[in-house]
Here is the input.
Amino acid sequence: MSDMLSIGASGVRAYQTALSTVSDNIANVATPGYAKRTSTLSEIEPATGLHSGGVAATGQGAVVSGLTRSADVLRDADVRTAGSDLARSETSVAWLGRIETALTGNQLGDRLTGFFNASKTVAADPTATTPRSAMLEQASAVAGAFRATGQALDLLDTNLDATASAAVTTLNALGSTLAKVNEGIARTKGGSAAAASLADQRDSILEQMSAISNVSVSIDDYGRATVKLGDAGGPTFVSGPQSDSLQVARGTDGMIAFTLQRSQSTVSPSGGALAGVVEAGQRISDTRINLNTIATAFANDVNAVQTGGEDLDSKAGTALFEIGTSPTDITVKLTDPRGIAAADAGKGPRDNGNLGKLDALRTSGAFEGKTTALVSSNASALAARKQVALAQGAMRDNAVSARDAVSGINLDSEAVDLLRFQQAYQASSRVIQVAKDTLQSILDIR
Here is the structure.
């Protein structure tokens, strides 16, 4: 009778644990990062292989020998890789959109067109004051557009620095947390609910890391993660209970660079938001260089035309524009409309030959066309990145679906397990009751 009681009791305990595991799965069906758990049931073997008399021994009931967490390291790695690629493209898309706003928001192309059209109006009637005043207004407008566009790019740089710093701070915090999780995993019994929970935390942290920088991950036999930033040849960021600290700085060329503080290793992310930030920094720098080139050539060439002719008072023309501390820091130096040098030297105030040179400069300098090309180049890059991001989004969704097929919770199968374990629990309880009734009957006979 004692065997029946112990067998029934072991069944009750085992199936109670199994029911708790199924209930936990059902409760966490919508919890991000939760991987399905399964209670592993095994037979309690007798202490000896044979009873006295040579009769084969039977089992002594059931026991939960451990808890299995449903996960696939390869599918987890696929999700991280796909997520890292998508994060890079999404970051690039966001910054390319901001660059487009900086280039188009101040209507620089329209202002250039307005200035050259105003000069043609003056050429049509060189002695009229109103067209000359309008030309100065247009000169002021184009100078303001150059300044505002340059300032918009400067602001983008400032915001990009803040974004990079925030991402690095988050990555360092994740690294510190992962190191603590690694330490906890090493101290936790394998196959336990606590170990499964820590593994969920570990994988969630790794996925968050991959959205900031692509990572190479290896898991040891205890379940601890070693993380390298970048590919497998990258520097180690987290190892066991230790984590390094990533730093961000601007290089002499204005580019963003990353370095690990302890190892002084250079990090070159090819995925995640940090890679998108590096791309954005390069794009902003290239855009500024091109804009500066256009601004410098425009101001200097227009000044060269202006100083080569005579104004309405038959005096030598003076510079129209003045360049400040940066190429786009352009202001209008000429304040008197009569000072516009429309005439060639010595030909009188009614001549418009010098403004004809300005019209020729419009064609040869191609300032409007270069400005349009600058905007179009960024727009093309933005459209291409959006297409790439769309494809990468689908790839990440597929990777997540493949992972969830292994680690996700199917309520239908959980319902079947719930019913099965309930029946087994009730049967074990019945075994206990039968053993008790039988024992009582024997005692009553005595």
